Amino acid sequence: MELDHVLLKTFVACIDAMSFTRAASLVHRSPAAVSMQIARLEEQIGARLFVRDTRNLALTRTGEELEGYARRILRLHDEAVEAFRRPDMAGSVTIGAPDDYISFVLPPVLRHFGALFPRVEIELVCAQSTALVPRVEKGEIDLAIVTRSAGMEGELIRREPMVWIASRDRVALERTPLPVALFEPGSQARAVVLAALGRGNVRYRSAYASFSYSALLTIVEAGLAVAAVTQISAPSSVACLTEEDGLPAVEPLDVILIRRPGSASIASNALAEAILDRSA
């Protein structure tokens, strides 16, 4: 038996996306091609890897066993390629992001990048998107992961759904008007939440406003307000709400990568590639 590296890459993309359709965009193939590749891998393994129906995708026991091997094989492959392509890359890169993106988007990227390029120094700046954009434009920051607002240019990392969260006892839902914790004025996250509340004719009051995700989460966990956050940053310590709880759907946010104007260093470009490849 020989396991095809390309098939393993598609297999892992399907796990990460939990959808053949979404995985297709990650590996730059059609959904039909992804389905064919998984069928070929299942033929090589001699067992089903996924249990799938029209809406759900889940790993079989064999698929769960293969996942660990597949990720190790792909990681070693990537490390070998980079070791021979840019073995002596050094330098420094300054990257900025809001605290929720730092916590939930960057760790796997930086772990992978640091293993490949240990001589590259990473400086991390934590700030809201509205503060990071001008600093990138001035050349103070090389890269930034931010939320796209109207007229903003950048490379799309992912389109992130928004979810309503509350404390586990949902006590804030019992209050009228509804207390809502919001991000800072001028932010796109605040704009889409306010637009949703307006469309839903929800009576609310602003219970808290800040650029800090951690502070906003504290207010929610204490039962003082509800909030809408990106799906990726909704922790298990809170309850995720739905329209059945009387809350309107909120438009998703585009998470984008912006770069310092002018010529970029090799290290900066390499980190940008890693973010775009591993954060989608």
From TrEMBL:
Residues 1-60 form the HTH lysR-type domain. The lineage of its organism: Bacteria, Pseudomonadati, Pseudomonadota, Alphaproteobacteria, Hyphomicrobiales. InterPro entries: LTTR, LysR_HTH_N, LysR_subst-bd, WH-like_DNA-bd_sf, WH_DNA-bd_sf. Signal peptide: none annotated. It comes from Roseibium salinum. Keywords: DNA-binding, Transcription, Transcription regulation. Belongs to the LysR transcriptional regulatory family. Gene3D superfamilies: Periplasmic binding protein-like II, Winged helix-like DNA-binding domain superfamily/Winged helix DNA-binding domain. This is LysR substrate-binding domain-containing protein. SUPFAM superfamilies: Periplasmic binding protein-like II, Winged helix' DNA-binding domain.
